[in-house]
Amino acid sequence: MTMQTAGIHHITAFVGDPQRNADFYAGILGLRLVKKTINFDAPEVYHLYFGDESGTPGTIITFFPFAGGRKGRIGGGQVGVTTYAVPAGSLAFWEQRLAAYRIPVTKVSRINENYLSFADYDGLRIELVEREQGALSTWSFAGIPVEHAIKGFGGAVLYSTDPDKTADTLSRTLGLTRIAEGDGYIRYQSTADIGNIIDLRAEAMPHGAGGSGTVHHIAWRAVDDSQQLEWGRRVQSHGYQPTPVQDRQYFNAIYFREEGGILFEIATDPPGFARDEDPDKLGEKLMLPTWFEPHRAVIEENLSPFTIREIEVKQG
């Protein structure tokens, strides 16, 4: 039987200053900070998770903020654009909101859908699209009513150095269904109602360069640990060399780089973000895994403090 991922679990990117990062994704886009922790491989750097009220797979964007880090270049071997889904009839609200914060917006069309395209403060490309699928958000922040709030990922646009091979991985390895083609893109769909539409740019792209304003990796969903092991065997049988399972506290992860250069992760849906915090307290405290807890004082001293706050609209 062909295995199929339900869709995107999370997307992880590099950014600069953590306060500006929080201001954009919480203060302007209205997402909830569901976890404040550190990069387990570089504990001097935050790892921040923003999503819906509980951090549901398919809503989570995560960041490694490093103030003063090098600027990246979006290109082949990366997620070129992160797509968010908003309720039908909401694009006008978001166009007005982004204009109020002086964020330049471009209207684009792709495969019979209309998008608002813009960039965050670090140059990461974002777009909003109206979709009927997906439950309405239950999280309201910064004056965004739930009837217009971001539901989660609509999907992502992939830039590949070898689109034919990336297309093969999406369909043959991950089990996505090719459903449309047009405007220079090939569209794939997964089984979930969010994080389910992947547009692959059909033209090969020159290599990008990692750094602030670029996506580090895209993660796909596994139901549980047992299925993740099956995914590992499947990925290996298709010629890739997945990593051993990595404990990321809130999910387990394996990684492999597909032949178009994009770093793919397969992450488990459980255990989720409430494993070490009450659901109504998510993101309020710096959470560390047990092996870093003895070093908390040093770690906190090396991290720049930031707050989740509403952002005033500048007049004039």
From TrEMBL:
InterPro entries: Extradiol_RC_dioxygenase, Glyas_Bleomycin-R_OHBP_Dase, Glyas_Fos-R_dOase_dom, VOC_core. This is Ring-cleaving dioxygenase MhqO. PANTHER family: RING-CLEAVING DIOXYGENASE MHQE-RELATED. One of its GO terms (molecular function) is dioxygenase activity. It comes from the Bacteria. The gene is mhqO. Keywords: Dioxygenase, Oxidoreductase. Residues 7-131, 152-269 form the VOC domain.
